[in-house]
Amino acid sequence: MKRESILVIGANGQIGTALIPLLQAQFGQNHVIAADLRKPQTEQGIFELLDATKPEALTEVVRRYRVTQIYHLAAVLSAKGESDPLWAWNLNMQTVLNVLEVSRLNKVKKVFIPSSIAAFGEHAPKYETPQMAFLDPATVYGISKVATENWSMYYHKRYGLDVRSLRYPGVISYQSMPGGGTTDYAVAIFHEAVQGHNFECFLSKDTLLPMIYMDDALRATLELMDAPEAKISIRTSYNLAGVSFTPAQLTAEIQTYFPDFVTYYKPDFRQAIADSWPKTIDDSVAEQDWGWKPAFDLPRMTEEMITHLTPVYQ
Ligand code: AKB
Prior knowledge:
Elements: E1 6-9, H1 14-27, E2 32-36, E3 46-49, H2 55-64, E4 69-72, H3 78-81, H4 85-105, E5 110-112, E6 115-116, H5 140-159, E7 162-164, E8 166-168, E9 170-172, H6 185-194, E10 199-201, E11 209-213, H7 214-226, E12 238-239, E13 243-245, H8 247-255, E14 263-265, H9 270-275, H10 284-290, H11 298-309
Parallel strand pairs: 1-2, 1-4, 2-3, 4-5, 5-7, 6-8, 8-12, 9-11, 10-14
Antiparallel strand pairs: 11-13
Helix pairs in contact: 2-4, 4-5, 6-8, 6-11
The structure holds 2-amino-3-ketobutyric acid.
């Protein structure tokens, strides 16, 4: 069997931090190259400082390590992107185009570039949003994800590049904090609750959004990347569902552990972003094509989050 050499761009981010140990376990520590703009706090395995907006720098790393797979996880998320739309567009698109082009020119075998529920907008059905819904996103992040999906499909059709993608819901994890997203409240709330603090939520209490626990998000990613090429019918990005909940439902679940915990609601500009997104997702195409099934519901996710975060603050 040929050895893989796997480059993870955006390795210090929320998904990279949790994905790298799994890739290291599967392929061996010396076969996973973690890359980011800044060094991580603790380094385990190979790390490269890399600015993926620079095609020469990316090419150099890909050639030096004879990279066979790339996970491109670096992006400016929905809320942060709105503070400087042109900067966010340039960063998100330049890095995606560099990854696609450098992969094509250097015969990288497989590429993973995530999309997001942010690709959907006003004219997609809000409940059980189908795979093939109309895409008219309200944020620059969403616009960049729709463009990324189309560029990925183009590289697959035109050059045969094996690019795969998932439309991630809000990802809930204890390993690291997300940054700049609209779903971030659902991680921050746990950090406050386990410290005995109350929580001020920037979304209203009944804002239903699609979310996914990190274990499910990682399993979906690895299952998609492991699926035989013939099974991949979607070359834009697969809808992916975990569990949908509102801030009020999450608060009630946390209160089963901390009965005195209170959430206060102070919606800000992120409310309009959340209101433009789906509430629940139909991921039946992922199920049909490569057998996707989420394992974590709201109670199980809450238990895991509290179990892992409690010792962090003791
Ligand atoms: C965000 O909130 O921007 C992200 C996402 C849903 O892609 N978590």
